Amino acid sequence: MIVDCHVHLHGNGETPAANVDFRLKYADRLGIDLLVCSLGESLRRQPTAQELELDNAWGMEAIKHCPQRIIGLVYASPNHVDKSLQLMERYIANGPMKGLKMWVCRRCNDPNCDPIVEYATELDVPIQQHTWIKSTGNMPTESTPADLVELARRHPAAQFVMAHSGGNWECGIRTVSHQPNIAVDVCGGDPEAGQTEYAVAFLGAQRVLYGSDASGRSFASQLAKVIGAEIPDSDRRMILGDNAVRMFKL
Ligand SMILES: [Zn+2]
Fold first, then answer.
1. CATH of 3-247 among 3.30.360.10, 3.20.20.140, 3.30.980.40, 3.40.50.2300
2. C-alpha angle 210/215/219, rounded to 5°?
3. 3-state secondary structure of 214
4. Ligand 1: distance of its center to the CA of 221 in Å?
5. How many CB atoms are located within 10 Å of the residue 234 CB?
6. Disulfide-capable partner of 208 in 67, 130, 192, 199 (CB 3.0 to 4.6 Å)?
7. How far is the centre of ligand 1, averaged over its atoms, from the C-alpha of 8 (Å)?
8. Helix (H) or strand (E) holding 182
């Protein structure tokens, strides 16, 4: 079982279904079974409440097109707390979505994230939080791994997946290593050797997940980080699928 825990349904067709079909064509070549998807309709960094509705409706259409293989995350924004909670109730509490995506609306240590994280904890679903440490400087509203540690300390019962391992993954992985409710995905960035081994060494394999960030990156280049890693096959199985199955309750 291979689960790609970080996929976007954007940029390959005019409809959710077209994007799903395009992704699945390549997923089939590589043996990827399930795609955990978010951010479709727009890739808006600062969506209005209405745009959040549209984006999540797009995700719902994608799930309906292929419910056996498309897993949805609610796109939540700390700029629109009430709307985010409403969408979580509609799409997670009442099904079928399995977690949250938070991107770059505000830095994730912002207090406005607290009610969203509290509800996710109550629903017992994980939160995929974008993080990056950019050499050229982050966007003002873009989270770093240290921001996520602040949020995760405030919510020890919540489960986070730190997207991109923080971009600068050596620094990002070390930053979250002592915060047990933060797992990482290896997606995005160049397919550098050593990333997966480094994450396993600092976090243990049970806190590392395969993801691609398609369409920003290809399935194959990101899968290679795990397939080519010098780790035991039992660790590889956890990273490729078992951890995602457990965390997202697939
Ligand atoms: Zn992404």
1. 3.20.20.140
2. 40
3. strand
4. 15
5. 9
6. 199
7. 7
8. strand 182-185
For residue 174, give both structure tokens.
Answer: 């070390």
Residue 42 has what pLDDT? 75
178 alpha carbon to ligand 1 midpoint, in Å?
24
7 alpha carbon to ligand 1 midpoint, in Å? Answer: 7
Q: Kindly list the domain boundaries of the chain, sorted by start residue.
A: 3-247
Tell me, in angstroms, the distance from the centre of ligand 1 to residue 103's CA.
Answer: 8
158 Cα to the center of ligand 1, angstroms: 20
Question: Which residue matches tokens 């409809």?
Answer: 15
At 7-50, the pLDDT tens digits run 999 889 999 999 999 999 999 999 999 999 999 877 899 999 99
Q: How many whole angstroms from 3 Cα to the centroid of ligand 1?
A: 15
Amino acid at 125: V
Residue whose entry in the numeric block shows the structure tokens 């039992």? 234
For 148-180, the pLDDT digits (tens) are 999 999 999 999 999 999 999 999 999 999 999
23 Cα to the center of ligand 1, angstroms? 15
